[in-house]
Amino acid sequence: MKGKTELVPCEICGYPVVNYESGVCMRCEKCGWQSGGDNIEYEEKYGISYPMVVPLSRAKVQYKEGKTFKATFEDFIRGLDFYSEMAFTYKCVKYGVCYRNDYSVLFYNEMQTWSFPTKDAFYKSASIDGLLLKDIWDEVKDPRYL
Ligand SMILES: [Zn+2]
Questions:
Q1: How far apart are CA 99 and CA 84, in angstroms?
Q2: How many angstroms is it from 80 CA to the middle of ligand 1?
Q3: Ligand 1: distance of its center to the CA of 16 in Å?
Q4: CA 107 to centroid of ligand 1, rounded, Å
Q5: How far is the CA of 51 from the centre of ligand 1 (A)?
Q6: Ligand 1: distance of its center to the CA of 124 in Å?
Q7: Ligand 1 centroid to residue 101 C-alpha, Å
Q8: What are the residues whose beta carbons fall under 8 Å from the beta carbon of 81, sequence distance 6 or more?
Q9: pLDDT in the model for residue 24
């Protein structure tokens, strides 16, 4: 048996989406946005949205410009603060980023792991194949919560 549902307008495009009692919405069929809570509050408090990562106000701009929703590297770092475990895909390889108990940062793929003492060190110096992650962020696909 399903919980109660209602139709609510998509936060981005206004198209009706199914909203579950839990506060989680189905992905919008028109624009692809998904809401997992109060994204105005998430943006104010944490600078992110859930589960899309990119803050709602910037996502609206991306939608108007016909771009796909994508978090910046800075959003991604705020997502790490919010959720502690993040992932993205680069050249078909999946990468994970997570906080350890001491707030050092572990960066990994299936083959290798790298460690950074702080999130700032990760932000400034994380690299893939000798290229700084912040410089290749345009090629990064689907930055997301893990
Ligand atoms: Zn929509």
A1: 5
A2: 25
A3: 8
A4: 33
A5: 14
A6: 34
A7: 37
A8: 46, 119
A9: 79
Q: Is 95 left (phi over 0), alpha (psi -120 to 50) or beta?
A: beta
| pTM metric for this prediction | 0.92
Looking up tokens 């943006």 gives: 43
Retrieve residue 98's tokens. Answer: 């997570």
Per run of 10 residues, the mean pLDDT along the chain (length 146 residues) is 78 92 84 92 96 97 96 98 97 97 96 97 97 98 96
Question: Phi and psi at residue 90, in whole multiples of 5°?
Answer: -135, 125
Q: Give 3-state DSSP helix, strand, coil % of the chain, rounded to 5.
A: 25, 30, 45
Query: Which has the closest alpha carbon to 79: 25, 12, 11, 143?
Result: 143
User: 17 C-alpha to center of ligand 1: Å?
Assistant: 8
Report how many helices (DSSP H) and strands (DSSP E) the chain contains, helices first: 4, 9
Model pLDDT, residue 2:
56
